[in-house]
């Protein structure tokens, strides 16, 4: 008797293996739960940003993409973005060029501050919760 193997409906490794690199990056970026971080970054920028500034979501996507494709330096990531127009679109950039290194350095500092604030807020909530228990 011939055995016919059945593909599991929960196993998406075949689908993932057939995706191109840009599609994999897009899939990962779309599924990162970074809403609270974006909200905190927007609150910090509120009224201080210029109209010419890149969207926070795009800058955060550049940060995540740098980590995904394992560029050790931001300057390498920015060069990659300047070369690859499709990657710029995946990251959400509207322009024909990547943001400057200065813009990304400032953003990384804000990102660290906001991330620390969010972690501190969670720690504070946990402490208050333990205190009431």
Query: Count of helices?
Result: 7
How many extended strands? 0
Strand content range: under 5%
Distance between the termini: 62 Å
Question: What's the alpha carbon Rg, rounded to whole Å?
Answer: 20 Å
Number of domains: 1
The biggest sheet amounts to: none
The average pLDDT value, as a whole number, equals: 81
Stretches where pLDDT is under 50 for at least 5 consecutive residues are none
> What percent of residues adopt helix (DSSP H or I)?
55-70%
What would you call the shape? globular
Series of H and E elements: HHHHHHH
Output the structural class. mainly alpha
Descriptive account of the structure:
This protein is mostly helical. It has one domain (26-132). It has seven helices and no strands. Helix 2 (21-30) packs parallel to helix 6 and helix 3 crosses helix 7 (101-132). The radius of gyration is 20 Å and the shape is globular.
A few lines on this structure:
The protein is mainly α and 133 residues long. It is built from seven helices and no strands. It has one domain (26-132).
Key features?
133 residues; mainly alpha; 7 helices
Layout of strands and helices, then pairs:
Blueprint lengths: L12 H6 L2 H10 L4 H11 L10 H13 L5 H10 L1 H7 L9 H32 L1
């Amino acid at each position: 008797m011939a055995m016919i193997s059945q593909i599991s409906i929960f196993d998406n490794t075949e689908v993932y293996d057939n995706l191109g690199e840009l599609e994999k990056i897009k899939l990962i970026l779309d599924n990162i739960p970074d809403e609270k971080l974006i909200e905190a970054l927007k609150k910090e920028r509120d009224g201080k940003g210029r109209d010419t500034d890149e969207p926070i979501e795009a800058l955060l996507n550049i940060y995540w993409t740098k980590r995904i494709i394992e560029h050790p330096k931001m300057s390498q990531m920015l060069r990659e973005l300047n070369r690859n127009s499709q990657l710029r679109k995946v990251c959400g950039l509207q322009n024909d060029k990547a943001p400057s290194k200065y813009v990304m350095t400032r953003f990384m500092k804000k990102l660290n501050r906001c991330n620390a604030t969010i972690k501190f807020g969670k720690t504070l909530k946990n402490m208050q919760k333990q205190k009431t228990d």
